[in-house]
Amino acid sequence: MIRVLLAEDHGVVRGALTALLNLTGDIEVVAGIDRGDKVVPHALACAPDVAVIDIEMPGVDGIEATCRLKRAMPSCQVLILTGLASSGLLKRAMDAGASGFLLKDAPTERLAESIRRIVQGERVIDATLALAAMSATVTPLTDREAAVLGLVGSGATTGEIAAELHLSAATVRNYISSVITKTGARNRTDAVRIAVESGWIEGLRHN
């Protein structure tokens, strides 16, 4: 029997996946949790073979939860679920130690088969995600543009960014304008989203 910890903050989704996985006959969900910062303590308590973790979680996100889990329990394999086919997220997940990356809308049968393959030592990456990774482009942003955009994503104002990077407010606005043009974004918020999804800057972590 493959022991699984399921981390998914939506109760209905978590309940449905738990019920379906428990029907497979060879997989048992031994813990279901709703926060990323609960992954490690629950894993230590129930010793799962695989942790299936949603990438968007309160507390800490799925990638940070994976990092913490692999430090605390290296033998536990991790399968991350995502609703977004992003090469940047895929790279971050693999760097964190995940053994699999699967789209959330995949059939339960594919999820179950992915869990089995991961236990056998394989890496499992959704075909759509693998295609996104192969077609990914190098960032068009300069280091300074990426730094400015990262601060925009953290909620900093133009004045705060200027002070942090020792720039004038006008220069910061020029950088933001350049980033919007390069990313094809509608505005600065959209530019942050595009850059995070493309892996050009890191997304914010939940506290």
Automatic annotation (TrEMBL):
Modification type 4-aspartylphosphate: residues: 54
Superkingdom: Bacteria
Domain HTH luxR-type: 134-199
Keyword annotations of the record: DNA-binding, Phosphoprotein
All copies of domain Response regulatory, residue ranges: 3-119
Pfam families, per the entry: GerE, Response_reg
PANTHER family documented for this protein: TRANSCRIPTIONAL REGULATORY PROTEIN DESR (PTHR43214:SF42), TWO-COMPONENT RESPONSE REGULATOR (PTHR43214)
Designated name of the protein: Response regulator
Organism (species): Sphaerisporangium rhizosphaerae
